Amino acid sequence: MTSERRKPYPFDQIEPKWQKIWDERQSFHALNPGEKNFDSKKPKFYVLDMFPYPSGAGLHVGHPEGYTATDIIARYKRMRGFNVLHPMGWDAFGLPAEQYAIKTGQHPAITTRENVASFKAQLKRIGFSYDWQREINTTDPGYYKWTQWIFLKIYNSWFNPKTNKAEPISTFHGEDPDSVRLAYVADVAVNWCPELGTVLANEEVVDGKSEVGGFPVVRRPMRQWMLRITAYAERLINELDELDWPEGIKLLQQNWIGRSEGAEINFVVAGTGGPGYRIHVFTTRPDTLYGATYMVLAPEHSLVDRIVTEEQWPAVREYRERTARKSDLERSELSKEKTGVFTGAFAINPANEETIPIWIADYVLLGYGTGAIQAVPAHDERDLEFARKFDLPIREVVKPPGGEDPIGFVGDGVAINSPIIDGLQSREAIRKITSWLEERGLGKRAINYKLRDWLFSRQRYWGEPFPIAWENGKHRSLGENELPVVPPPLEDYKPTGTGEPPLAKAKDWVRYSDKATRELNVMPQWAGSCWYYLRFCDPQNKERFVGEEAERYWMGSSPVTRHSSLESTPGGVDLYVGGTEHAVLHLLYARFWHKVLFDLGYLSKPEPFQRLVNQGIILGEDSQKMSKSRGNIVNPDDVIGQYGADAFRCYEMFMGPLEQMKPWSMHGVEGVARFLARVWRLIMTEDQAGQWQLSAALKDAEPTKAQNKILHATIKKVTEDIESLSFNTAISQMMIFVNAFTNAETIPVSAMRTFLVLLNPFAPHISSELWEKLKSPGDITGQAWPSYDQKFLVEDEVEIVIQVNGKVRDRMMMSISASDEEVKAAVLANPKNAELIAGKTIRKLVVVPKKLVNIVVA
RNA sequence: GCCGAUGUGGCGAAAUGGCAGACGCAACGGACUUAAAAUCCGUUGGGCUUUAAACGGCCCGUGCCGGUUCGAGUCCGGCCAUCGGCACCA
Questions:
Q1: What is the ipTM, given to two decimal places?
Q2: Where in chain A is the domain with CATH 3.40.50.620?
């Protein structure tokens, strides 16, 4: 015999069998409204996974964690009578395929096709109930045609501040529509990564290095496409309120958007007076205006050139060049020590007409606020550090409430040395000085956001080309009838190294017409994932990015979930599960696109995802992050080969709470596999010849009272636990059920059938097979979810715990119907208790009905 | 530095303010077996104690310190540790 271990039950036969049946019957295909046999009486449920990038490395055990959770929900909801949309697809544009193409010359489309095929095979092997007829791929021209189409909608829109929403550009009546488009071109200092030969978004840069590959990143001005996501900052914050997302994720987005309320104040450059010589600063603390003893402009600020004095020019020029050369990494590394240079110019403080020096320093960022600040060293840590280093004056203008040292105090207190607002609390002082400034035209109330516009172009090959042509230095959109814009075939995918995109190499393709050339940049990987959940509703539609009726149905209101108190929820997808790594980027970008399309009237809801759940990371057996270098990666194929897909699924869920980070354990898989084998042997026994036969203990008998109790307790617990995504405890309860029936002389078939239905979402293969073996009617996936009967759960008697001063001393059985008074009397009559409380005074007697009595004595 | 999450046996974990450790793993003991695997049954937080042995009895125990309460893993205040996010955002 080889070392091949005998399988505890024949999962290696039944799992492929049922997967094939589901495929052939298309058991999980969801019909759209208007299709034949569509049942409009059923409520809808849209349960979505974050679709994967099909990498060459294949699936690891982290992917199927969330996928298993959603699959359980999908199967459960179907049994509860919902029309369930549960799709899967591929986020297949992106760097790895392109890098691979550079190395091997193989077209990314080929690698992508191969990787998708192996990912799909792996997912099918786990038995997920995806509707594969709805499979989509972001690199499919039939898909990215609509990604480009949405870009055109964004390009041809502007954000009308009066209506607070996006409108077609034709409704804009200003001089230059190009200045307000939601997609625009700007020369911006971008994160240029020489190694990758491309520009990266802020979010793709970690600690001054590229997130992919860890290469150094430097700042460099380039002409780039930007999306005006900042126009939506307010709505992106406010409309989080009614979403059922983890509070932590909402907070992450709020902080990312970073709303600050304050004032914009105008300073005039001394000795000039012209309107072109005003410095606008943003501050959250206008009440400290009297404490401003100098000003700082960002080194790149446009006013610097015009105000620097003759003798300061060399120093300023030298400083600017030095900061421009700094990479992000250097800027943050050197941030401990403040640097800066005096411009030689002075400004006038509008509050007291005082003349204060103007400096430049790289601790003031061009991209935030107005790129200029009033420096109040007494009440701002950074200004204080700077003032101390360069020996600038420090003036206290806020008195701390607790009598702390006012120097460096940044909290709220009472205004001092500030004639207009002296004696006022900070909050009140802010209000007063802001109106004072407003009345005199010296400033105004203002709100600022940390959020920047979205850098939307990449100098790469493997992405969606822009549907844009250039003529005489001006951009214009291509017609919708020209979509999709397909990237040209290339022999050489390598970056040009100059910052010019690889598409420049396709000379014929680039020439759009005699006069016009094509845009050479491609879109970032986020583009395809910004709207894929919409395409799933109607993936084959050739006329529209999503059919109106399909969108209204799947992205519309579903019966109110318990997580929301609202009549109608703002989000369309009922449950979205994925990793926290997308907490800000993908989820913010998708919300932004969704809102634009909603404003333009293409969608029925203002938010894409009503309920979001983040699955926790799965660590290796050594409790370390899984990684190639640690050699602790667990491959699902190995686990399934040894224990079966059902055991794999159940273990993924049994490990612990879904949201929690937890380590993998092969022993744990074994335990769950044993549980499934026990389920099998509850119904099947092996005869002399080694054949599986129906167990002799199976009878068409009524369950005993005890059996009914545990059966109904299991129905109750499993149902409630699935609803709350507490899959681990649902499985525990099913284990308790199986333990109770193991060794039972009589196993009622009816109880087993009910149990198999409960088990089905978790372990669909074994439950399907046993359902069939029991000659049960129909297919198990078409069964109705069982409900429990309270009458089986109630007992005649309950155990009452007796405590003395909070400590358990005894327990006794009491009738369920006993009144508090009867319980008290019985407890006091109990001889053992009498002994315990002998010689003491009873101070109090606490009775918790059906549970406990606490005798408080002294 | 700021924000957030987490902290319970040897391990993964469970517990509407009411018996801490369900369920699983590991370990140990037993049954079955020529033997092993598999399977089934049992023990298993720590300490003390009664007893010939067993049953039992008592005390301590949910990161640390304090509070509220008849009663706290759970609520409140303060700390510590680990992980994640942000980080010159004026």
A1: 0.95
A2: 29-148+528-619
